[in-house]
Amino acid sequence: MSAKKSSKKPKPGADLKALEKAEKNAKKSGGKSSGKSPGKSGGGAPKGYLGSTLLPVHSLIFVLPLIIFYEWAVYLINEQRMASGHIPQRVSADVFTRDAVGRMLEAFGLTGAAAHPLEFGILSGIVVLVVLVAWTIITRKGWEIRWTTLLGMLGESALFAGAWLALWKGLEYFIRTPMPRMTIEPDTSFPWIYGPAFREITYNIGAGVYEEFLFRMVLMAAIGLVIMGISGFEWDRSRLIAIFPAALLFAGYHHMGPSGDHFTWTVFSYRAISGVTFGFIYYTRGFGIAVGTHAVYDILVSFWPQMVAAWHATFH
User: Fold this and answer.
1) Residue 141, CA atoms < 13 Å, CB-side half-sphere
2) Is there a contact between 49 and 149 (Cβ–Cβ < 8 Å)?
3) Per-residue confidence band for 34, with pLDDT thresholds at 50, 70 and 90
4) For residue 297, what are the CA distances in angstroms to 8, 58, 162?
5) Cβ(161)–Cβ(85) under 8 Å?
6) Of the given ranges (3-7, 122-126, 215-219), which has the lowest mean pLDDT?
7) CA dihedral 267, 270, 274, 276 (to 10 degrees)
8) How far apart are CA 282 and CA 300, in angstroms?
9) Is 183 within 8 Å of 165 (Cβ atoms)?
10) Among 101, 149, 154, 314, which residue's Cβ finds the most Cβ atoms within 10 Å?
11) R_g (Cα) of the chain, nearest Å
């Protein structure tokens, strides 16, 4: 019986009819039973919260308000600074990115883009947003925005920043060396809104956005490409290795220039380890959470003395 069935030839057009029937069933069910469509699913977008934080569209929406706040606040601060005879200030990574892009624009005939940058320009912010938009388009990860994911990213940023601060404060107690932090001298010629607290928040947010963009997104990718070309490793492995040289450059960057920190191996090592930590967060949790963690951590470090003083005043 079985031999007779196996030797039986299929009817002509049977496969075509079966395919047409499957397509009709798929249309009736809204296409849900016909399998994944590359276009509809955004090219294999990750499912679940842990995967969704890695989508560039969520990083785009997450960092957008941070960029808007930083650029608005820097405009107000520098407008007041220039009116008071002070030199405009922006985050160093912001200035570096803007100057580099300005020189690239000059190479394409847009003269003056680097030589005469706008004091209140938002060129760096535009670059970050354009890269994230291009990343979303090229990888075809889709444009679906999950607001619960954005709230989770904010919570993760605060959690990682708090945990990292607690760890370093514990180590600080044993090594007896304070962590480096941004300090801005008070200036009574500025209204309260332009005072040290407002400026520290502004520049710490700017550092979170532009240092993560420069040292994690751009530099880790560039070093990863070099490692992949030399070693033949796959992309993910090359990018993972790139965390470490990028962290060393991140640490060294804070000692460069007239406004750089005084070099000590303790401070350099602290920054290098911080760079590795931010690199792993970027690699495993995405650009948005890396930016949020960096910004929140810098703000907590900057206001730590005030928080400690408030704690003692309240409970002692």
Assistant:
1) 21
2) yes
3) very low
4) 72, 21, 7
5) no
6) 3-7
7) 110
8) 20
9) no
10) 149
11) 26
* Burial zone of 6 (CB within 10 Å; 0-12 exposed, 13-18 middle, 19+ buried): exposed
Name, in order, each residue with C-beta under 8 angstroms of 34's C-beta and a sequence gap of 6 or more: 22, 23, 25, 26
Q: Which residues contact 151 (CB under 8 A, 6 or more apart)?
A: none
Average pLDDT over residues 29-46: 42
Longest dimension (CA), the chain: 100
Q: Is the pTM of this model over 0.85?
A: no
- In the three-class reduction of DSSP (H, G, I as helix; E, B as strand; rest coil), residue 47 is classed as coil
Predicted confidence (pLDDT) per residue in 190-207, tens digit: 454 557 888 899 999 999
Residue pair 71/122 in contact (Cβ under 8 Å)? The answer is yes
Q: How far apart are alpha carbons 74 and 77 in whole angstroms?
A: 5
What does the pLDDT look like over 241-251, one tens digit per residue?
999 999 999 99
If we measure between CA atoms, which residue out of 279, 61, 75 comes closest to residue 151? 61
Tokens at 165, concatenated:
């601060």
What per-residue confidence (pLDDT) applies to 88?
Answer: 78
